[in-house]
Every structure is written in C-alpha cells, then in structure tokens.
## 1
Amino acid sequence: MLIAWTTVASRADADRISADVIARNLAACVQIDGPIVSRYRWEGRVEQAEEYRLNFKFLESQAATLQAQVLATHPYDTPEWVVVRAESVAEKYLSWAESNSSTPPL
C-alpha cells in the first residue's frame, strides 16, 4: 500500500478532488486535514497560507493513474505530490482496501 499527500487552498477543492478519486476507485480512502498552516518560499519570497491536506491511501497498481488524475485536476501550478510506501499494513485493512479500490472506475 502507498500513501500520498497534496495540499489545496480551499475545502471545496479538497472535497472535489477527494470525491473524484473515490468515485473513480483510485484510492481506498482520502482523508482531509485542515486548515493547516504552510510556510514556504515561492518565487523568491517567504509565503504563509492556510491549506487543506489530502492524504490518499491506495494500491501500488493505482499509483500512476491516481497521480495523473490528481495533478490534472489540481488548482495549483506546482502541486505538492509526495508518495511513500507503508512499511506495514494490517491484513484486514489491506484486504478492505483491495476490495474497495480495485473495481473498474465509474
């Protein structure tokens, strides 16, 4: 199982992206945190913004399609997209994820 995250500026964008991903069966679960505060450098200036973080839990077989879908619908010019491999996943949870995210998309 893989876990990825990105951030967006509004709850509406977080809801839209997460609903789309789940409807397409590209992830077993998307969690939305926020608002959070992000501090970063952009175009030479230090910036601070309130954002919403989306955490995606998905199967490795969905990685390329999920990334393409999220980045194609993301409102930022340079969206954050970080993916990590889960070191350990409970058998029951992994079984649930496989049965809830591997059917053909809508």
Note: Strands lie at 2-8, 29-42, 45-58, 82-85.
## 2
Amino acid sequence: MSYQKTIKNLALTIFVVWLIVFDFRIYQEKAFAADDAEDIKEDIEKVQSKAEKVKKELNTSQTLLQKKNVELGVTKNLLQKTQSEIGRKEVEVNNLNQRIKLSREMLEGYILEAYYADEDPLSGLLLGDVRDYGMSGDFDQILNVKERIVLTLGEIKKAKEDVAKTKEELDSKKEDHEKLITIQQSQQVEIKTDINQAQATLSELNAKIDKLKSELSSLLTTAVSFKNVTDAATFAAKVTGIRKDYLLGVLVVESNLGRYTGGCNFKESRMSGYRASVFKEICNELKYDYNKQKVSCPPKGYKGTGGAMGVAQFMPDTWAGYKSSIASVTGHKTPDPWSLTDGVVAMALKLTKVDGVKEHKKSAEAKAYCVYLAGGNWPAYCDSKGVNYGEKVLYWADNYERVMN
C-alpha cells in the first residue's frame, strides 16, 4: 500500500509540475509574441523619426531650390535687359558711323566743288589765309559749312567713344550675369541632386515603414472595434458574473483590446504532436484552412512552439478543455477561438475559476490574472519584486479607454 501511495503521489506531483510548465509556456509564448509586436512598433517609430528628419531636409532643399529659381529668374531678366541695352548701343554706334560717313562725304563734296571752280580752298585752308584767294561769298558759305561739319564730326566722334565705352561696360556686366547664371544653375543641380537623394531615401524609408506595418498587421489587427470589444465584454460579464471593466483590463494587457491575435500560420508556429492534431480538428470543425489561420509565433527565449489562438490566446488543447463550457454559455454549438464573443467568454470562464472574482474582489481579480498567465506558478507574477501583472490589470480596468484607439 505504501508503495502504491508513493507512486500516486509521484504521479500527482509530475502532473502538477506539468500543468505549471504548460501554463507557463503558454504565457511565455504570448509574451514573446507580444514582444515581437513591441519590437516592430519600436522599429517603426525609429524609421518614422528618420523619415521625418529626411522630410525636413527635403523641405529645406525644396525651399532653397525655389529661392534659387527666383534668383536665377532675376539674373536672367537682368541679362536680357543688358543684352537689349547692348543691342541698342550697337544700333547707336552704327547710326553714328553712318553720320560720320555722311558728314565726311558732304565735306568732300564741298571741297571738290570749290576746287573745280578754279579755286584752291584746300591750300588756303591749310595756310589759314582765305583773303589771298579772293574767295567769293559762295566760298565763305562753303567754309562755314565745312566748319560745322568738322564740329559735327568731333561731336559724333565723342558720342561714338561714349557709346563704345558704355557698350564695353554692358559687355562686362553681361559677362558677370552669365557667370552668375552658370553658378546659380550649378547650385540648382546640386540642390536637385540633394532633393533626388532625399526623395529616394524617403521612398526607401516609407517602403520600410510599409513593410514593418505589414509585419505588425500580421500581429495586430484593427478589424475589431472598441464597441465590438465592449459588447463582447458586457455579454461575458452578464453570463459569467465577472466585472466588465476588469475583463476589459485583462483584454488590454493580454491582447491590446483584441488587436493582438497572433502573427504566424500553422507551419511557422511549429506545432506538432497532440497539439497540432487538436488544432487541425478545431479548424476542420469550423471549416477553416488550418494552414492559413493566424496563431502565436514560437517563443524566442527558449525552445518551444507557438499556436495560441484568438483574443483569449488559448492553446488548442486548452481550448478543447473549455469548448463545452463556452458552448453552454454562448449557445454556439461549435465555439470559435477566433470569434470575439467566444474568445472573451473563454477568457472570462478561466478567470472566474479563482474564488472571489465573481464577487468582484480586487485581490481575487489580481490573483486570477496571474493564474491566467502562469497557472500554479502565479505568485511569481503577483509579487512586488518585479512586474505585478495583477495590479497592472487592475490599473487598466480603470483606464482601458486610453487604448481604445
């Protein structure tokens, strides 16, 4: 009898230890999967921060480019005006040359006319004494015209020199404008290169953000609205006697108000053996493709498997143990772990197994969540040495609306 009793005690001890390890592994699987989501969120925040910095740099470059465009436009207008002025001065020079040519031709004509009249006005002009020639009144008139022509030639020559000088200054100004345009265009090219690089970097960062968000969406789904969650919690509270706000607090900590439902498929979860067969059976009963249903991922910190399902994150074999209880409460012949109502009811049923929860005792509620996490090892999660998950749930029971969005 003593030997049989020893065997029974040993078997009971092994069973209890197995339950503790089993429940603890379930908790760790969910915890590591949740950590995955947090890691992705942190990565998204880091990339978004870098993207914002690149956006600011891009905006600065684009503003600078706009400024350079204005400056270049002003310089081009100045160059155009200078070129127009140069053109006008060139026309003036040509006109003055024509006047000089015409005046010279007139002077030559008067001199020839006097010469052919048997006069020698040229030598007289050179000697400076016209009286010796007995010039007639016509010659005096010719002389006066000649003086005016010579005077005009001097004026035209001076005007031509002034115009040439102005044109030279305009040519220098034009050259300065052209050099400035070259510099401004070079600056534009550099700024545009910076903009293109910033846009390419921003595109890469946005692509990375989209990828991270895609990865996160496999862990977090926003398909469940806050109203859906509160409706399910209200129903579960009514049929099980649990406090609605407490249940919502558990949902915040456990699954971010129903947004966390697992990020791996069956193959990725590495489920095997009995658990895998139960999972396939559950999916088969619900007409789901077991290869496509989302479950928790394998833990990173130790060797194990994923496979927790739905908002309650029950393992397939744990869910199988609650199926009949869930069905009796919801009236659903085949409870669905991915159904919000069935999942929240399953959660409520497990939590109310701790005495005092239905009476809404805070100490019992704190303990119940720690038991929910770690089974028989619950005291390690409800002490003051580390994170007191029981108190954490009670806090969110009063503040769950903060994460409703």
Note: The chain has two domains: 56-217, 220-403.
## 3
Amino acid sequence: MALVAVGVGGALFAGVEVRARQEARTLSERARSLLHANTTAAPELQHLQADRARMFVDEALGLHESDELRGLRHLTSALSYLQKGDRERALQRLDMAEGLLGESADSLALRGALEAVAGRRRSAKRLARRALGRDPKHLRARVLLVDASLDEADAERALTLLNSLVREGEDSAALHNRRGIALETLGRLAAAAAAFDAAVRRDGRLSDGHLNRGRVLRARGQAERALAAFLNAARLDPTSSAAVVGAALCRLELGDRVGAVADLERAHAMGDGDSQALLVLGDLDVVEGDLARAIVRFRAAIALAPERAHAYLKLGNALMRAGDFGEAAGAFERAIDRDGSASAAHNGLGAALSALGRREEAALSLARAADLDRSDPNPWLNLARLHQQGGDLDQARQALAAARQRDPEVMLAGL
C-alpha cells in the first residue's frame, strides 16, 4: 500500500514539474515576442519593452531554472541597460548571455546596436551581417544594417533593404522615414517627399518625419508647405533647433525677414551646439554689408562645429570681402583640410593667394577647383584674371574661353 502511495505521489510531482516547465516556456515565449516586436509596435530598439520582457523571464525562472532562461534574462537586461544609456553594463550582460546561450542573431544584433551607439559604424555593420547570417529575416539586424548603410551614404543598399521590409508588411512611420532619407540622398526628391508624407500619416507625432518632409518640400520650392512642416516639427520637439532654422529659411524665401531673424536668434539661444543658425545670420550680415559682424558669427559657428568645412568656406569668403587675404587663405586651407573635394574652397584659396601675389600656388589651386567642379566657371575666370594681371594675355584668353564654355555670359574687361 505504501508503494502505491509513493508511486501516485511521484506521478503527481512529475505532473506538477511538467506544468511548471510548460508555464515557464509560455512566459519565455511572451518575453521573446516583446523582444521581436515589429517596428509599428516598437519603432526603435529604445521602444522594445525590455523591462516587461525581463519580468516574464523572472516569473519563468521562479517556475523552472535553466541556462536558457538565465541567458534570456541576461539578454533582456542587456537591452534594458542599452535603453538606459549604460553601455558598459549592457556589454557585461550581453557577454553573460552569450556565455550561456552562445552567439545568436539576437545577441549579435544587440552587440551591433551597442557598437553603433559608440560610433563604430563599420563594426555595427559587420555584426548586423553576422546576425543575418544566422537569421536572414531578423528584423532588428536588418534595420541596423539600414542605419549603418545610411550612415555610410550607401543609400541604394539601404533602400533595397527598406523596400524588402515594407513588402513583407513592415509599414511603420520609422521605416517610411528612413526610406525618405535614402531617396533624398539619391536625389529622388518627389519620391522622398511621398515617403515622408507616408511617415507622418502613420505617426503624426514623429517630429523627424515632419522635419525631413519640410527639408524636401523646401528643396522642391514649396516654401509655404515646408514652413508648415517645420513648425509641426518644432511643436512636437521644442528642442529641435534644426526645425526652427528650417522655418527661418522658409520665412526668408517668403519675404518675412523679421520673422526669419527672430527664428534664427531663437534657434541660436537654444544652446544645443548647432551652428546652422549662426551661419545663416552671418549670411544675412554679409548681404547687409556688415562684414565685421558676419566674421564674428562665422567664427562662433566654427567654435561650435570645428569639423564643418562649410563654415570655414563662409568665413574665408567674408574675409576676402573685407580685404583680409591672409586670414582668408588660412580659412580656405582649413576648409580643404576637412573636405578636399570642396571646389569652392580651392577656388577661394586660389583667389586669396592671387591677391597675396603667390601666383604659382594660386594657379595650382584654381586649376584644382576647375577640375573638381566641371560646371563652375569661376575657377577659370579667376585663372583668366591671374594671367591677365601677369601680362600673359594668350593664357588669359584661353582661360576665359574655358569659363565661357561653362557660362557663355561671363565677361572680363580688357579681354
């Protein structure tokens, strides 16, 4: 009789254990479903419900202990730390997860996201591809590869990936916004505008969608519609100086200079390190003939963003107008250091060197500018002036003829 009782008890215990494992499996599947949510439910990694997923895993661990569940808990913790901006702890937890589970598409995609946060784009791209080698349909790895491609200006690759995701049913505002960026990079502005329209239709609260839409509409000459888009972006994200500057540029095109200046000063006062407002204000100073104030603004813009070649180019042009050719040459050289393909900077340097009497160096800079931009007549026109001033009229006429091939209306007195 005792043996029968023990047998029944053992069967009951086994049944309880089976049910506990089943419930634990159900809970772990619920956790994984949160980690694999589509981009409509969770547009970015930041929106995945990592803490809720970890809660399900903790419940599962209370029912049944296993390396799989412990590894999954470390994985959810790693995502949670990424979302909180604690990269070091996220990497520690990710290492612990892979120690129990081995590498997976999930862990590789998450590691790639951590590399992207650190600015290591190539590493992020490599990890995304490794993740896709394990699971070609892994959503977050594919989005990570899209972002890495956009960062590297490989818009064709990004667009191919995005079109595949949309065809498969990923119809989120976040992906349409990325499609717009890729199309804009490729110069397909009408298609880009349509993609940004789709993004804001799906999520009217997506400030980036409104901002990007405004930029493309302005590029297409639709200043009034662009202004409305920039104002929507600024309303949704009051910290966006880019939206305020975009609105200012539209107001300038619509003839509202007072409103534009007010917007630009507001954008600069935001203090977010964006130099664009100062650059536009400096441009207005140049138009008004206040070169001293323009130079001050351009220098301030450079202090905020010393890596931008464009700011040095503007400074160089203002210094040229002010007659400070030595300082102008230095500004153009710094622009070239940052972007050696900037034809306008080589042209400016050539003009500055010419004014300083450094004729041979000037000729080399102007020839380089003419080669970099095959449509701009100014480098050839400046070469014509240089040769004319040196008394070599034959070469001056040849240079002027080359300038006229690019713009038949250019003229040079004395030739």
Note: The two ends are 123 Å apart (CA to CA).
